[in-house]
Every structure is written in C-alpha cells, then in structure tokens.
Amino acid sequence: MMTTNRNRFADTGLRMSSRKRLSKGCRRILCFLIIGLLAACGASTPSREATSPLPESTTSTHSSLSPQAVEEKNGYRIGPSDLLQIDVFQVPELSRAVRVSAEGVISLPLIGAIQVNNLTSQELEDLLGKRLREKYLQDPQVSVFIEEYVSQRVTVEGAVEKPGIYPIQGRTTLLQALASAEGVNKVADLEGIKLFRPTGNNTKQILYYNIEAIREGVVPDPKIYADDIIVVEESGTKVFFDELSNYVRFFANPFIFF
C-alpha cells in the first residue's frame, strides 16, 4: 500500500513538473515571438519621415500643382443620369433642373437638345451662353450646378472594411467616401491616407491626408472627384499589436484555435 501511495505521489509530482516545464516553455516561446515581432516591426516599418517626406495635403513630385489647381483644371465631367441645375440670370423661364439622358443629352427651351456628355460645368456654361447669345439674348449669364453625381466613381482600397468602387452622388468628401466603404479597419494608419488624382497625360497627383486632423476640424474635409483613388495604409504598430494579441490568446488557451 505504501508503495502504491509513493507511486501516486511520484506520478502527481511528475505531472506537475511537466506542466511547469510546459508553462515555462510556452513563456519562453512567447518571449521569443514577441522579440521576433518587435524586430520585424522595426525592420519592415520605416519611419514616416523616410517614406512620406511631404506634408499633409500637398502634392508629390509627380505634380507641382496645388490640390485646388488640379480641381479647377480637372473638374468633374458630366455623364449620363447626372442631375443638373441650370440657371439663366434674370430669365427664370429658362432656369430648371434637368437630368442627363443615357445618351448624354439634355433638352432646354429655345436651345433644344444638346450633347453634354464629358463636359465640365464651366464648359457647359460657355456652350449654353454661346447658343443663347446667337439668337435670343444679348449677354446671357448662365450657371450650371451639378446636383447629383451619378455617372462617376471613386475607388477605396487598403485598410478599410469593404474595399471597392463606389458611385459619387452629389458633393462627396473624403470622410464620406471612406464611410461608403464602411470606414477604416482596426489596423488603419489614420495619418496615412493617400489620394491619387488624375491630372491628364496619364499622370496622377498624390495627396496626403490625416483623418484625425480632418475629424477634429484642423484641416478641411477635401472634396472627392471622379476617378479618384483613396488608399488607406496599414499602421505597422497596430498590425504588430494585433498579431501579438492573437499570439497571447493562443498561448493562454491554445484549444480555442482548434
């Protein structure tokens, strides 16, 4: 009987010793993983000064134009299904809201059908003024406002919940475009928002934005234009801590992963 009890105590001690060794081993492995992740994070995540030398909301070396200049030069192009508000100063009979047809045509009193597809609002104002000046008005002052942008798209990719291509409807800002993609995800770099904007001649302007600064009202929420591409970068620090959290949960209870 005494021999049996000794064997039981020995078995119990062996199991406890094995558990301690396993626990120590797991802690050692976890420490090595943390050190490895820290090293990888430091090696693979260069400083923002090295990768983003440009201040927020400024252009890269691909373009010397300011964001405002690019917006004026590359204004929104009217397309099918867009809703236009056309006003002729002091001639209310000619002022109205019209929707562009599938063929890119609108119809107005006196002028009749006119092709407006791929015109900017300024180009359409000039065209309508010219047509009215030819036969009807001495010095017409025409203004065109795009009430609904339906034909154009913006691309949102990177660290967002639902990357994709989304329609621009009405005046759309950067935060609204990100909201269309259901917002940024948990590893997004809120200071690392890139906006690629076509400038013509197969070139793009790169603009940099800080979401936190926009949310706090420090900088204005920029307007989004057709064919803009928004890229939300990942934060190396957030990625590291997210992976670390997964490792800690695994070693705390490895069976939940199986």
Structure description:
The protein is an alpha+beta fold. The protein has helices spanning 2-44, 48-51, 67-73, 121-135, 174-180, 211-215, 236-252; strands at 83-88, 96-99, 105-108, 112-115, 142-148, 153-158, 164-167, 188-200, 203-209, 229-234. The chain has three domains: 2-45 and 240-257; 48-73 and 152-237, Outer membrane lipoprotein wza fold like; 83-148, wza like fold (2-Layer Sandwich). The protein has a five-stranded mixed β-sheet with strand order 7-6-10-8-9. A hairpin with a 5-residue loop joins strand 6 (153-158) and strand 7 (164-167). Helix 1 (2-44) packs antiparallel against helix 7.
Describe what is shown at a glance.
InterPro entries: Poly_export, Poly_export_N, Soluble_ligand-bd. With 258 residues, the protein is an alpha+beta fold. The chain is 38% helix and 24% strand.
Keywords:
24% strand, wza like fold, three-stranded antiparallel beta sheet, alpha+beta, disordered N terminus, Outer membrane lipoprotein wza fold like, 7 helices, 3 domains, five-stranded mixed beta sheet, 258 residues, elongated, Poly_export_N
- The mean pLDDT is 75
Radius of gyration: 30 Å
Please state how the strands of the largest beta sheet are arranged side by side.
7-6-10-8-9
How would the global form be characterised? elongated
CATH topology of the largest domain: Outer membrane lipoprotein wza fold like
CATH class of the largest domain: Alpha Beta
Order of helices and strands: HHHEEEEHEEEHEEHEH
| Helical coverage, percent range | 25-40%
Determine the strand fraction and express it as a percent band: 15-25%
Number of domains: 3
User: How many helix segments?
Assistant: 7
What do we call the CATH homologous superfamily of the largest domain? Outer membrane lipoprotein wza domain like
Structural class: alpha+beta
- The number of E-state strands comes to 10
The CATH architecture of the largest domain can be named as Roll
Pick out the low-confidence regions: 1-7, 12-22, 42-74
For the largest beta-sheet, the strand count, sense and barrel status come to: 5 strands, mixed
